[in-house]
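Observation: inputs received (chain + beta-D-glucopyranose).
Thought: call the complex predictor directly.
Action: predict_structure
Action Input:
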Amino acid sequence: MVDVDTCLGIDIGGTGIKGAPVDTAAGRLLHERIRLLTPQPSEPGAVLDVVREVVARFSWRGPIGITFPGVVVDGVTRTAANVDKGWVDLDARKLFSEALHVPVTVVNDADAAGIAEMRFGAGAGRRGTVMVLTFGTGIGSALFHDGVLVPNTEFGHMELHGHEAEHHAAGNVREEHDLTWEQWAHRVRHYLQHLDMLFSPTLFVIGGGVSKKADKFLPHIVKHVRAEVVPAGLHNDAGIVGAAMAAQLACGTAPLPTPDAASA
Ligand code: BGC
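Observation:
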């Protein structure tokens, strides 16, 4: 039987597809997560097969939240910077829900990580303008004001030093260009300074795989950015937790994640 506070969260990334059942009232995974490789090419049908495999491994029959690394409007995936172009303008919610025979919610990956961080992680209880940024394959962004999300902000595609920011400062760029943590941190620092100038946030939350290695790069950043900069509290699980939260919100069984609710 499926608990009302339990949804399956699946995080589709450029390199891996991760999933786990989530206790959405507590913001924690109920089982160790499964991680499978994102098929290459990452065509919708091939990704669906991997998602199906994650669902089968947990014998899941309840609501599912799925993140996607691109713009998502009303379940339709609009862009696909780091995945196969077959996703552009695809009704992904319809694809997944018809194939899996359960209610499915599809949200942008950074927005999912953001709602989880604002409820259970480094942004919990924080008012004002908060920006959650994920550094992995690409840079994802989630913008909140007084706990309310402005979806699909896509600040990873902002121009920085003549490049798209994510081509200059994403997590995978550090590995691909063999940068030291300090060299990479300088790039991130310039990016945050630019965002700070444009949006004057009170807090930046740094998510994605790099958040577990915060001690290696944050010391090169924090003193040089006016806003507070902290690592994500849920690390790389934020996407899975946020996906499950989005599924629950769509089912109408969970309160909206406001700062007041978070600090209650
Ligand atoms: C996409 C964003 C996504 C980010 C992280 C970017 O290339 O355009 O939608 O959030 O990568 O996956």
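Thought: report the result.
Final Answer: The radius of gyration is 17 Å. The chain has two domains: 6-110+237-263, 112-235.
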